[in-house]
Amino acid sequence: xxxLVRERRHQQALKLSLPPPIPAxxxxxxxNAPALSPAASPGSPVIENxxxxxxxxxxxxxxxxxxxxxxxxxxxxxYALKVLRFNDGSDGVRRxxxxxxxxxxxxxxxxxxxxxxxxxxxxxxAGDLSFVMEYMEGGSLQDLLKSQKTLSEREIxxxxxxxxxxxxxxxxxxxxxxxxxxxxxxxxxxxEVKIADFGVSHLVEGGGVAxxxxxxxxxxxxxxxxxxxxxxxxxxxxxxxxxxxxxxxxVALECHVGRFPLTGTGQRPDWPTLxxxxxxxxxxxxxxxxxxEFRSFLERCLEKDWRKRxxxxxLLEHPFVx
Length: 322
What we know:
GO terms for molecular function: ATP binding; protein serine/threonine kinase activity. Residues 53-321 form the Protein kinase domain. The chain has 322 residues and is α+β, with helices and mostly antiparallel strands. Helix content is 32%, strand content 15%. The protein has helices spanning 2-13, 24-27, 91-104, 141-148, 153-172, 227-230, 241-257, 271-280, 292-301, 312-316, and strands at 53-62, 65-72, 77-84, 115-120, 129-134, 175-176, 185-187, 193-195, 202-203. A five-stranded antiparallel beta sheet has the order 1-2-3-5-4, with helices on one face. Strands 6-9 form a two-stranded antiparallel sheet. It has a two-stranded antiparallel sheet with strand order 7-8. A hairpin with a 5-residue loop joins strand 7 and strand 8 (193-195). The radius of gyration is 19 Å and the shape is globular.
């Protein structure tokens, strides 16, 4: 208990790091460039057996699984272990997990939480699937907002730039994340934000449309979904990639106002309420407390028509994140 309290205090005291601006020529990678397997990342040990890990604490629960803090016995390194449990009738969860495994095998970026190993039937329970992930000791952006309420524009700029760099990498790999939100943006001990959780992500082949009206397409957190996912007929479906930009805009605005920004105070961001906001509401209002640069950034992210919304490339050149 003392250890958990100490870790929570460390998370509350954590400040986001503010790295110097990175020239566009330095971070852009060629489209469809080959990626290393996460297990092949330099300096990462290959964890081949579940018994090499010792559970230290529970970090969280959700989406049919549990995340543990674990110790790799042979190297004394700390990791996060995400264990998904499949029950009868959980075919949708299995498909979701299979997609996540396929995507995690592809990605290797300093702006994405690294996956070191994946275990099938790990011995925790029959049918379990376990991911050994990079341990992010600062918790999530959601944890940070709970303790600090709001972030300064300088801190929001740092968050937005790192998330944009991560989205840029994923989109170059033809991956739509689909669930950018504070709880899926994790913070390490240096205050660096990285994208996590690919449970609802999609790999788009041949430049096709990422989202459709299949049951799986409505998975994720509706509060951060883009207008084209709520009303695909009006907005011609969308390409999926622009939806990640919208979600980032909602996150950035939430960091500024200290609460979920698309509904009124006390309103629940449930599906019917959000449908009214997305389908019948006017253009998203940006608080006057925001600077002109921040207002411009938010307006370009929160353009309802995905065809007019800013691209990731455009936002990476925006004054607010530079």
